[in-house]
UniProtKB/TrEMBL annotation:
Family label: Belongs to the pyrroline-5-carboxylate reductase family.
Binding site for NADPH: N56
Top-level taxonomic group: Bacteria
The keyword Electron transport is annotated on this UniProt entry: no
Function: Catalyzes the reduction of 1-pyrroline-5-carboxylate (PCA) to L-proline.
Protein name per UniProt: Pyrroline-5-carboxylate reductase
A cellular-component GO term for this protein: cytoplasm
Any Gene Ontology biological process: L-proline biosynthetic process
UniProt cross-references to HAMAP family, sorted A to Z: P5C_reductase (MF_01925)
Residue ranges of domain Pyrroline-5-carboxylate reductase dimerisation in the record: 161-264
Pathway where it operates: Amino-acid biosynthesis; L-proline biosynthesis; L-proline from L-glutamate 5-semialdehyde: step 1/1
Length: 265
Protein backbone atom coordinates (compact mmCIF):
# COMPACT_ATOMS: atom_id res chain seq x y z
CA UNK A 1 0.00 0.00 0.00
CA UNK A 2 1.39 3.45 -0.94
CA UNK A 3 2.26 5.52 2.15
CA UNK A 4 1.70 9.26 1.80
CA UNK A 5 3.10 11.84 4.23
CA UNK A 6 1.93 15.45 4.31
CA UNK A 7 4.87 17.56 5.51
CA UNK A 8 3.71 20.71 7.34
CA UNK A 9 -0.07 20.36 7.45
CA UNK A 10 -1.36 23.94 7.38
CA UNK A 11 -4.34 25.06 5.27
CA UNK A 12 -3.37 23.33 2.03
CA UNK A 13 -1.94 20.32 3.89
CA UNK A 14 -5.23 19.91 5.74
CA UNK A 15 -7.11 20.02 2.41
CA UNK A 16 -4.95 17.08 1.32
CA UNK A 17 -5.62 15.22 4.58
CA UNK A 18 -9.36 15.77 4.19
CA UNK A 19 -9.41 14.78 0.51
CA UNK A 20 -7.22 11.69 0.93
CA UNK A 21 -8.81 10.39 4.14
CA UNK A 22 -11.55 8.39 2.34
CA UNK A 23 -8.86 6.52 0.33
CA UNK A 24 -7.05 5.83 3.62
CA UNK A 25 -10.24 4.51 5.20
CA UNK A 26 -10.88 2.27 2.17
CA UNK A 27 -7.38 0.82 2.72
CA UNK A 28 -6.16 2.02 -0.71
CA UNK A 29 -3.39 4.27 0.67
CA UNK A 30 -1.94 5.08 4.09
CA UNK A 31 -1.93 8.78 5.02
CA UNK A 32 0.00 10.58 7.78
CA UNK A 33 1.21 14.14 8.36
CA UNK A 34 3.67 16.21 10.36
CA UNK A 35 3.43 19.54 12.13
CA UNK A 36 5.80 21.53 14.30
CA UNK A 37 3.21 22.63 16.92
CA UNK A 38 1.70 20.28 19.53
CA UNK A 39 -1.73 21.94 19.55
CA UNK A 40 -1.98 21.69 15.74
CA UNK A 41 -0.95 18.01 15.88
CA UNK A 42 -3.65 17.38 18.50
CA UNK A 43 -6.25 19.27 16.46
CA UNK A 44 -5.46 17.31 13.27
CA UNK A 45 -5.34 14.02 15.18
CA UNK A 46 -8.79 14.72 16.67
CA UNK A 47 -10.34 15.79 13.35
CA UNK A 48 -8.96 13.10 11.07
CA UNK A 49 -7.86 10.19 13.34
CA UNK A 50 -4.60 9.90 11.37
CA UNK A 51 -1.03 9.65 12.64
CA UNK A 52 0.52 13.13 12.98
CA UNK A 53 4.30 13.14 13.49
CA UNK A 54 6.24 15.79 15.39
CA UNK A 55 9.37 14.86 13.43
CA UNK A 56 9.45 15.69 9.72
CA UNK A 57 12.39 13.30 9.29
CA UNK A 58 10.38 10.38 10.70
CA UNK A 59 7.41 11.27 8.49
CA UNK A 60 9.62 11.29 5.38
CA UNK A 61 11.36 8.04 6.37
CA UNK A 62 8.03 6.27 6.80
CA UNK A 63 6.48 7.56 3.52
CA UNK A 64 6.76 6.55 -0.15
CA UNK A 65 5.31 9.85 -1.36
CA UNK A 66 5.91 13.09 0.58
CA UNK A 67 3.60 16.04 -0.09
CA UNK A 68 5.43 19.21 0.96
CA UNK A 69 2.89 21.85 2.00
CA UNK A 70 5.25 24.22 3.82
CA UNK A 71 5.57 27.88 2.88
CA UNK A 72 8.51 28.36 0.46
CA UNK A 73 10.73 30.04 3.07
CA UNK A 74 9.92 27.36 5.67
CA UNK A 75 11.06 24.75 3.14
CA UNK A 76 14.24 26.69 2.31
CA UNK A 77 15.24 26.77 6.00
CA UNK A 78 14.72 23.00 6.42
CA UNK A 79 15.97 21.82 3.04
CA UNK A 80 19.71 21.90 3.62
CA UNK A 81 19.68 19.58 6.65
CA UNK A 82 17.24 17.23 4.90
CA UNK A 83 19.56 17.16 1.88
CA UNK A 84 22.57 16.38 4.10
CA UNK A 85 20.69 13.42 5.61
CA UNK A 86 19.69 12.28 2.07
CA UNK A 87 16.14 11.94 3.39
CA UNK A 88 14.50 12.19 -0.02
CA UNK A 89 16.64 9.53 -1.71
CA UNK A 90 14.23 7.04 -3.36
CA UNK A 91 11.18 9.08 -2.24
CA UNK A 92 8.69 10.70 -4.57
CA UNK A 93 7.90 14.27 -3.59
CA UNK A 94 4.84 16.31 -4.51
CA UNK A 95 5.49 20.00 -3.89
CA UNK A 96 2.60 22.48 -3.73
CA UNK A 97 4.91 25.39 -2.88
CA UNK A 98 4.32 28.41 -5.12
CA UNK A 99 7.44 29.61 -6.91
CA UNK A 100 9.68 26.67 -5.90
CA UNK A 101 10.90 25.11 -9.14
CA UNK A 102 11.82 21.47 -9.76
CA UNK A 103 15.41 22.66 -10.06
CA UNK A 104 15.28 24.36 -6.64
CA UNK A 105 13.80 21.21 -5.06
CA UNK A 106 16.82 19.34 -6.39
CA UNK A 107 19.45 21.98 -5.60
CA UNK A 108 18.22 22.87 -2.09
CA UNK A 109 16.65 19.60 -0.90
CA UNK A 110 18.38 16.93 -2.97
CA UNK A 111 14.95 15.93 -4.29
CA UNK A 112 15.32 14.14 -7.60
CA UNK A 113 11.96 12.44 -8.05
CA UNK A 114 9.53 15.34 -7.84
CA UNK A 115 6.13 16.47 -9.00
CA UNK A 116 5.36 20.15 -8.77
CA UNK A 117 1.68 20.99 -8.54
CA UNK A 118 -0.24 24.24 -8.32
CA UNK A 119 -3.66 23.72 -6.77
CA UNK A 120 -6.59 26.10 -7.01
CA UNK A 121 -8.54 26.94 -3.85
CA UNK A 122 -11.20 24.39 -4.84
CA UNK A 123 -9.04 21.60 -3.35
CA UNK A 124 -10.43 22.56 0.07
CA UNK A 125 -13.76 20.97 -0.94
CA UNK A 126 -12.30 18.32 -3.27
CA UNK A 127 -13.28 20.43 -6.31
CA UNK A 128 -9.90 21.83 -7.27
CA UNK A 129 -7.92 22.02 -10.47
CA UNK A 130 -4.25 21.08 -10.16
CA UNK A 131 -1.54 21.92 -12.69
CA UNK A 132 1.19 19.34 -12.61
CA UNK A 133 4.71 18.85 -13.99
CA UNK A 134 7.46 16.45 -13.02
CA UNK A 135 11.21 15.95 -12.98
CA UNK A 136 12.84 13.75 -15.60
CA UNK A 137 13.19 10.73 -13.29
CA UNK A 138 9.42 10.41 -12.92
CA UNK A 139 8.16 7.40 -14.89
CA UNK A 140 4.77 6.92 -16.63
CA UNK A 141 3.66 4.59 -13.79
CA UNK A 142 4.46 7.34 -11.20
CA UNK A 143 2.33 9.77 -13.20
CA UNK A 144 -0.56 7.32 -13.20
CA UNK A 145 -0.25 6.59 -9.46
CA UNK A 146 -0.03 10.25 -8.47
CA UNK A 147 -2.80 11.42 -10.83
CA UNK A 148 -5.06 8.72 -9.45
CA UNK A 149 -4.34 9.81 -5.85
CA UNK A 150 -4.77 13.52 -6.61
CA UNK A 151 -8.09 12.92 -8.34
CA UNK A 152 -9.48 12.70 -4.78
CA UNK A 153 -8.96 16.48 -4.63
CA UNK A 154 -10.24 17.46 -8.08
CA UNK A 155 -9.07 17.49 -11.69
CA UNK A 156 -5.46 17.35 -12.81
CA UNK A 157 -3.92 18.99 -15.90
CA UNK A 158 -0.38 18.33 -17.08
CA UNK A 159 1.37 21.64 -17.77
CA UNK A 160 4.91 22.65 -18.70
CA UNK A 161 6.72 24.19 -15.74
CA UNK A 162 7.22 27.50 -17.58
CA UNK A 163 3.41 27.89 -17.71
CA UNK A 164 2.96 27.63 -13.92
CA UNK A 165 3.07 31.40 -13.39
CA UNK A 166 0.25 31.76 -15.94
CA UNK A 167 -1.78 29.04 -14.20
CA UNK A 168 -1.25 30.82 -10.86
CA UNK A 169 -2.32 34.21 -12.29
CA UNK A 170 -5.55 32.79 -13.73
CA UNK A 171 -6.50 29.72 -11.66
CA UNK A 172 -4.79 30.55 -8.36
CA UNK A 173 -5.85 34.20 -8.18
CA UNK A 174 -9.08 33.59 -10.11
CA UNK A 175 -11.37 33.02 -7.10
CA UNK A 176 -10.59 36.56 -5.92
CA UNK A 177 -11.53 38.10 -9.30
CA UNK A 178 -14.79 36.17 -9.46
CA UNK A 179 -15.55 36.97 -5.79
CA UNK A 180 -15.14 40.69 -6.58
CA UNK A 181 -17.55 40.35 -9.52
CA UNK A 182 -20.04 38.52 -7.28
CA UNK A 183 -19.78 41.19 -4.59
CA UNK A 184 -20.33 43.95 -7.19
CA UNK A 185 -23.42 42.22 -8.59
CA UNK A 186 -24.92 41.72 -5.11
CA UNK A 187 -24.34 45.43 -4.36
CA UNK A 188 -25.91 46.38 -7.70
CA UNK A 189 -29.09 44.47 -6.80
CA UNK A 190 -29.28 46.35 -3.49
CA UNK A 191 -28.66 49.65 -5.33
CA UNK A 192 -31.74 49.12 -7.53
CA UNK A 193 -33.96 48.22 -4.59
CA UNK A 194 -33.65 44.47 -3.90
CA UNK A 195 -33.02 43.20 -0.38
CA UNK A 196 -29.46 41.97 0.14
CA UNK A 197 -30.64 38.40 0.74
CA UNK A 198 -32.65 38.25 -2.51
CA UNK A 199 -29.85 39.92 -4.43
CA UNK A 200 -27.35 37.38 -3.03
CA UNK A 201 -29.68 34.51 -3.91
CA UNK A 202 -30.00 35.73 -7.53
CA UNK A 203 -26.24 36.14 -7.89
CA UNK A 204 -25.48 32.72 -6.35
CA UNK A 205 -27.97 31.18 -8.78
CA UNK A 206 -26.26 32.97 -11.70
CA UNK A 207 -22.88 31.52 -10.80
CA UNK A 208 -24.18 28.03 -9.99
CA UNK A 209 -26.01 27.71 -13.32
CA UNK A 210 -23.35 29.33 -15.50
CA UNK A 211 -21.05 26.36 -16.19
CA UNK A 212 -23.99 24.21 -17.29
CA UNK A 213 -25.30 27.01 -19.54
CA UNK A 214 -21.90 27.54 -21.19
CA UNK A 215 -21.81 23.79 -21.90
CA UNK A 216 -25.25 23.96 -23.56
CA UNK A 217 -24.35 27.05 -25.65
CA UNK A 218 -20.82 25.71 -26.25
CA UNK A 219 -19.14 29.13 -25.92
CA UNK A 220 -19.60 32.18 -23.63
CA UNK A 221 -20.20 34.38 -26.69
CA UNK A 222 -23.17 32.24 -27.79
CA UNK A 223 -24.62 32.39 -24.28
CA UNK A 224 -24.28 36.18 -24.26
CA UNK A 225 -26.01 36.43 -27.65
CA UNK A 226 -28.85 34.20 -26.44
CA UNK A 227 -29.60 36.60 -23.56
CA UNK A 228 -29.13 39.79 -25.62
CA UNK A 229 -32.37 40.69 -27.43
CA UNK A 230 -32.81 43.67 -29.80
CA UNK A 231 -33.19 46.96 -27.91
CA UNK A 232 -33.40 44.99 -24.65
CA UNK A 233 -32.10 45.38 -21.12
CA UNK A 234 -29.01 43.20 -21.60
CA UNK A 235 -27.91 45.20 -24.66
CA UNK A 236 -28.00 48.40 -22.58
CA UNK A 237 -26.04 46.80 -19.72
CA UNK A 238 -23.44 45.32 -22.06
CA UNK A 239 -23.05 48.59 -23.99
CA UNK A 240 -22.11 50.32 -20.74
CA UNK A 241 -19.72 47.57 -19.66
CA UNK A 242 -17.97 47.54 -23.04
CA UNK A 243 -17.67 51.35 -23.04
CA UNK A 244 -15.73 51.13 -19.74
CA UNK A 245 -13.22 48.75 -21.33
CA UNK A 246 -14.13 45.97 -18.90
CA UNK A 247 -12.70 43.15 -21.04
CA UNK A 248 -9.34 44.87 -21.51
CA UNK A 249 -9.22 45.68 -17.80
CA UNK A 250 -9.80 42.07 -16.82
CA UNK A 251 -7.07 40.91 -19.21
CA UNK A 252 -4.72 43.59 -17.81
CA UNK A 253 -5.46 42.42 -14.24
CA UNK A 254 -4.46 38.85 -15.10
CA UNK A 255 -1.31 40.13 -16.88
CA UNK A 256 -0.38 42.07 -13.68
CA UNK A 257 -0.87 38.91 -11.58
CA UNK A 258 1.19 36.93 -14.10
CA UNK A 259 4.05 39.45 -13.94
CA UNK A 260 4.01 39.21 -10.13
CA UNK A 261 4.00 35.39 -10.27
CA UNK A 262 7.04 35.51 -12.60
CA UNK A 263 8.85 37.89 -10.19
CA UNK A 264 8.22 35.42 -7.35
CA UNK A 265 9.81 32.47 -9.20
N1 LIG B 1 -3.21 28.93 0.29
C1 LIG B 1 -3.39 28.77 -1.01
O1 LIG B 1 -4.43 29.09 -1.59
C2 LIG B 1 -2.29 28.12 -1.86
C3 LIG B 1 -2.54 27.85 -3.20
C4 LIG B 1 -1.52 27.24 -3.95
C5 LIG B 1 -0.31 26.90 -3.36
N2 LIG B 1 -0.10 27.20 -2.04
C6 LIG B 1 1.18 26.84 -1.45
O2 LIG B 1 0.89 25.92 -0.41
C7 LIG B 1 1.87 26.05 0.63
C8 LIG B 1 1.16 26.10 1.97
O3 LIG B 1 0.28 27.21 2.00
P1 LIG B 1 -0.73 27.33 3.22
O4 LIG B 1 -1.63 28.45 2.89
O5 LIG B 1 -1.30 25.98 3.54
O6 LIG B 1 0.30 27.77 4.39
P2 LIG B 1 0.20 27.44 5.95
O7 LIG B 1 -1.21 27.32 6.37
O8 LIG B 1 1.06 28.44 6.64
O9 LIG B 1 0.87 25.99 6.04
C9 LIG B 1 2.20 25.72 6.33
C10 LIG B 1 2.20 24.94 7.64
O10 LIG B 1 3.48 24.36 7.84
C11 LIG B 1 3.78 24.47 9.22
N3 LIG B 1 5.22 24.42 9.42
C12 LIG B 1 6.11 25.45 9.27
N4 LIG B 1 7.35 25.01 9.50
C13 LIG B 1 7.25 23.71 9.83
C14 LIG B 1 8.19 22.72 10.16
N5 LIG B 1 9.50 22.98 10.24
N6 LIG B 1 7.75 21.47 10.43
C15 LIG B 1 6.45 21.16 10.36
N7 LIG B 1 5.49 22.06 10.05
C16 LIG B 1 5.89 23.31 9.78
C17 LIG B 1 3.23 25.83 9.59
O11 LIG B 1 3.11 25.91 11.00
P3 LIG B 1 2.78 27.30 11.75
O12 LIG B 1 1.29 27.37 11.76
O13 LIG B 1 3.37 27.11 13.09
O14 LIG B 1 3.43 28.39 10.96
C18 LIG B 1 1.89 25.83 8.84
O15 LIG B 1 0.86 25.22 9.59
C19 LIG B 1 2.67 27.31 0.32
O16 LIG B 1 3.95 26.94 -0.14
C20 LIG B 1 1.90 28.00 -0.79
O17 LIG B 1 2.78 28.61 -1.71
C21 LIG B 1 -1.07 27.79 -1.29
Amino acid sequence: MIKIGILGAGRVGEAFLKGLKPLHEEGKIFVAASHRRLERREELGRKYSLKIFSSNDELVQSSDIVVITLKPDQFRSLAESMKRKALFKDKTVISVMAGITLNELYEKGGIERAFRIMPTLGVINQNGLMAMCASSLIQPQDWMDVESILSALGDVVRLEEDKFAAFTALGGSGPAYVALLMESLVDSGVTIGLSRSISKKIVEHLFESLVGLVEIYEHPVHLKEAVMSPNGTTAQGLLYLESTGVKGNIIQAVIKAYQRAREME
